[in-house]
Every structure is written in C-alpha cells, then in structure tokens.
C-alpha cells in the first residue's frame, strides 16, 4: 500500500521535485487512518493540540523578535509541555486515561519545546507555521520518533536531494524497511509471543532472584530492542523514500563498553534531545549561578535530574521512576570510573579481554535496568 501511495512522490523526487500537494494529501489520509474512525477522540485531540502548539510557537516567536525575558521563555516552555503533563498526570490522579491524549503526543511535544528553545537562543530566526506543521506532523516519525531537528528537517524538505543521492536514499530506505520488518514483525514478535511470557510466568512462580528471572531479563531486553529498533528502522527507511534523512535511532547499543557509550547508541534521538535541551542547559545554569563549587557535583546532579525526568516521562509509576534513578546513579558511577581510568591510563590494561569484560558488564547493567522498567517487581509484590 505504501509503495503505491509513495510512487508519485518517488517519481517527483527522482526528477528533483517535491509534489507537495499530493504528499500533504497522503499525510492527511494516513493521519485519518491512524487517528480517525474509531479513534475520533484522538483525532480531535491531535487537531486541538497542533493548533495550540503552532499558535504558541508563533506568539513566542513574535515576542522574541522584540524582547528576551527569561520568565516569558520559561512560561512558553511550560505551556508547550502542559498538554503532555496533563496526559501523564491525569491517570495517576484519577485512575482514568486523559481524553486529550493521543499516540505520539510525547514526540510532538519534544519538537514543540525544541522550537521554543531554539527561537530563544536565536538559532531559529524565522518562523513559518506551514513548515512547522510539516515538521510536527511528519508521518513516519509521529508516533515513536526518531526525534528530528527542525533546521535539519527544513533543509531536506525545502531542498530535495539530487537524483544520484536520492537513488542512494531509496536503496538504503528499502533495506532499512526490510530490516525493520525482520526486527519488529519476526524477531520481536516471536520473542514477545513466546520467550517473554514463558520466562515471566516462570519468574513469577519462583519469585525472588532466580535463573527464571535472569532469563526473563534477557528475553525482555532483546524484545525491547528488536521491537523499538525495528520500528525506528521502518520510520527512517520510510523517511528516506520521502527524501528526508531522519537520523537513525540505534547503533549497536549492546556492544557498548560503558553506560555513557550506551546512551550514545540507544534511542539516540531521545538521549541527544535530553542531553542538548535539558542536561547541558541545567549544567550551564548551575555553573553560572555557582550553586555547586565542584564540576563533578554539578555533573552528578545533572545526571540524576536528567534520568529521573526520563523515568517520569515514561510514566508516574514507581518502577519507571526507579528505572530513571538507577540510570542516574549508574551514570554517576560510570563517570567516576571514566575519570579514574583516564587518570590511571598507563597503569590499567587495555586489550581484547578488558574490552570484552566492559561490554559484558555494561550489557548486564542495562538489562537489569530494563528488568526494573518491565514492572515485573511490581507484579511480584502484588
């Protein structure tokens, strides 16, 4: 179906043209299929949400062209986050799902907040509501990312690739789509249908730390990777067919030699977003205001806050928060080890065996964090 729908777009791009009207009609059609029909509440929610964000960014841009008060900027960020915050907090308070939620609200919010912050920084000087709409509602990435950057997206959208480059993108895109289907619909499907529930039941039956729990930890971790990486490959591959080089989201994360390396490979667009728009800004603010004398303390506070926020973003349940805190503490330990390693570089061995050990330790630390994330300890308690 996608091949038929995208064929006119592909033909146009091969000739250096973007058939914008047709592409927008396809996007509207796919959005209707996703959010319309039986999901009409989601459809209304996304329409209201998009109007809210487009108007908010427009008003803040107009203000920013004249003034640059911090309070107004903070207010704009809070207003951009407000719909997502309501969706996350409402079920925790009432026990019911919020009526304003829809699939992909988190990723659209990341894009909107990014716009406000880059307008504040003076990086985005001109605001085109129609281009922002294209960026916000780019269909391949709307539900689960990857999270693109506005200026990079705008460049690809306004200037289609030449014929030779686009032919290469088509080849890469098709390969990614096939690989994504293999990951998500075959490997993740069978792990999720058989290995995960089987090992989960064994773990719940035995309770406590056991071999069954260990098997569940590994099966759930691999399921999480192949499911999400598969979707991300599919999204990036589809983006390539549309002439947009959406950044990849995963880069062999299970061969990471330390936790920092892992977060540079796992859900990269999200981790880089939090790094650039939360961690770096927080560290800069703490250092500027001299809240802490030690740079190490500033860095540790930044990591703890960052990963706690990431945990809360997943949901207001204790195991998501524990997952975030676990990674925050683990990152502080990881940074301390990297500093020690750098200081004693000549005394510490570095060879195939030590690298293999580093990969093994990192892999198991990550898998244990996913075990927390899975919520199985909550099931054991209850």
UniProtKB/TrEMBL annotation:
It comes from the Bacteria. The keyword Transmembrane applies. GO terms for cellular component: plasma membrane. Keywords: Acyltransferase, Cell membrane, Membrane, Transferase, Transmembrane, Transmembrane helix. GO terms for biological process: lipoteichoic acid biosynthetic process. It is a multi-pass membrane protein. It is an enzyme of class 2 (transferase). The keyword Membrane applies. The chain crosses the membrane at residues 40-60, 72-93, 129-147, 167-192, 213-234, 296-313, 319-337, 357-377. It is found in: Cell membrane. InterPro entries: Ac/AlaTfrase_AlgI/DltB, DltB, MB_O-acyltransferase, MBOAT_fam. Pfam families: MBOAT. Its EC number is 2.3.1.-. One of its GO terms (molecular function) is acyltransferase activity. Signal peptide: none annotated. Pathway: Cell wall biogenesis; lipoteichoic acid biosynthesis. O-acyltransferase that catalyzes D-alanylation of both teichoic acid and lipoteichoic acid (LTA). D-alanylation of LTA plays an important role in modulating the properties of the cell wall in Gram-positive bacteria, influencing the net charge of the cell wall. Catalyzes D-alanylation from DltC carrier protein. Belongs to the membrane-bound acyltransferase family. This is Teichoic acid D-alanyltransferase.
């Amino acid at each position: 179906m996608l091949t038929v729908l995208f064929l006119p777009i592909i033909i146009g791009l091969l000739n250096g043209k973007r058939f914008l009207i047709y592409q927008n009609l396809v996007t509207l059609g796919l959005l209707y299929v996703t959010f319309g029909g039986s999901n009409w509440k989601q459809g209304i929610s996304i329409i209201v949400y998009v109007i809210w964000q487009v108007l908010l960014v427009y008003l803040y841009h107009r203000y920013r062209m004249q003034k640059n008060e911090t309070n107004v900027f903070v207010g704009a960020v809070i207003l951009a986050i407000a719909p997502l915050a309501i969706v996350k907090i409402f079920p925790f308070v009432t026990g019911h799902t919020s009526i304003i939620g829809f699939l992909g609200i988190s990723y659209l919010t990341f894009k909107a907040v990014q716009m406000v912050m880059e307008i504040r920084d003076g990086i985005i000087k001109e605001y085109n509501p129609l281009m922002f709409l294209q960026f916000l509602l780019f269909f391949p990435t709307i539900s689960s990312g990857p999270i693109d950057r506005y200026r990079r997206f705008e460049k690809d959208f306004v200037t289609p690739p030449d014929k030779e480059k686009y032919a290469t993108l088509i080849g890469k895109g098709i390969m990614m789509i096939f690989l994504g289907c293999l990951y998500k619909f075959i490997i993740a499907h069978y792990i999720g249908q058989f290995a995960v529930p089987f090992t989960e039941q064994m773990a719940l039956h035995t309770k406590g730390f056991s071999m069954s729990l260990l098997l569940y930890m590994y099966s759930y971790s691999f399921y999480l990777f192949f499911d999400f990486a598969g979707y991300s490959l599919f999204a990036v591959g589809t983006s390539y067919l549309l002439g947009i080089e959406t950044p990849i989201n995963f880069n062999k994360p299970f061969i990471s030699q330390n936790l920092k390396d892992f977060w540079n490979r796992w859900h990269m667009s999200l981790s880089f977003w939090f790094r650039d728009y939360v961690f770096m800004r927080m560290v800069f603010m703490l250092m500027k205001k001299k809240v802490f004398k030690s740079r190490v303390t500033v860095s540790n506070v930044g990591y703890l806050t960052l990963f706690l926020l990431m945990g809360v973003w997943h949901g207001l349940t204790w195991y998501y928060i524990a997952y975030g805190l676990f990674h925050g503490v683990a990152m502080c330990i990881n940074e301390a080890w990297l500093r020690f390693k750098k200081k004693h570089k000549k005394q510490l061995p570095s060879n195939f065996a030590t690298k293999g050990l580093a990969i093994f330790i990192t892999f198991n630390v990550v898998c244990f964090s996913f075990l927390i994330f899975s919520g199985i300890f909550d099931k054991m308690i209850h």
